[in-house]
Fold this sequence. Notes:
Layout: E1 12-15, H1 19-30, E2 35-38, H2 42-51, E3 67-70, H3 73-77, E4 82-85, H4 92-99, E5 108-111, H5 124-131, E6 140-144, H6 149-153, E7 158-163, H7 167-177, E8 182-187, H8 190-212, H9 217-237, H10 248-259, H11 264-273, H12 278-283, H13 290-305, H14 310-320, H15 325-333
Helix pairs in contact: 4-5, 8-9, 8-10, 8-11, 8-13, 9-10, 13-14, 14-15
Amino acid sequence: MKNHVDADSIKIGVVGAGSWGTALANLLASKGFKIDLWAFEKDVRDQIQTHRENIVFLPGFSLSTHIVAFNDITRVVSGKDLILIVVPSHVMREVARGLAGNVSKEVIIVSASKGIENKTHLTMSGVLKEVLADVPEGQFAVLSGPSFAREVASNVPTVVTVASQDPKVATFVQHIFAKPFFRVYTSDDIIGVELGGAVKNVIAIAAGIIDGLGLGLNTRAALITRGLTEIRRLGLKLGANSRTFTGLAGVGDLILTCTGDLSRNHRVGKKIGEGMKLKEILAESRMVAEGVKTARSVYNLSRKLNVEMPISHEIYRILYEDLSPKEALYNLMTRDLKQEFDGY
């Protein structure tokens, strides 16, 4: 790891040219870094190279000439000092295998992906650490917080957290990303930051359903509050710091994703509340709503660990067992009465 941030000497590769990956690549390029960007889709690569715009995933924004897009992942990650990975959770393992053998043991790996793998129940950094076993654990970091891609691309003031078990790595990454409109805090709670970023997408689907059903602000406020309780319960069971969930990667990201019009997960939930079927909704967009797949992971993991997460369980049943939203709401509202705080 280099001792200081020097745009001329630090080589950065960004893996994933969706809206978030493209926005972060452009942010880094605006600081003078030369960015190699891997796009899975050939049309996206061509758009960036020819038109300086990601028309599919981030339309309307001119991209820096410091960004060079490729379809060859080996070209993008080889010889880099820092690799930022921003891909959907369900392809993280496959993409990580493309990095194995092509990165140095000194590389810093930063994940900005949010999700929990269905089969293993690993977070995204967990998948990366397993596949890229030659890279020391302290050189992995995660970036999360309330940050819609379009707003970051518009230079809207945004505040996020970067977590790593090595404080020097966290500080290094902090300085790589920080700009006057993009403030970055550090943390050593990787699991807490990742769980906050992943499970909030499930709760955001629930928030969208509430809006689709035409329910009120009382209902949404209660959902966000009790949703945070569920995230915290799971996090503490897995060794997270409880304070993380009152921070940017916890309640901050949860509020944004449950209330913001730019939230894909909220939009999916709203359409379900309005009566659409999940298959129809997913067929409409090339963009991934991470909460759909994460709902399965959260359901199975919470049952395995015996963690009470009733909202998340009802969302799983709506998505995968065709439970009606109104019946799910009734189930939640008529559960056994109890104290608000349960010791977690």
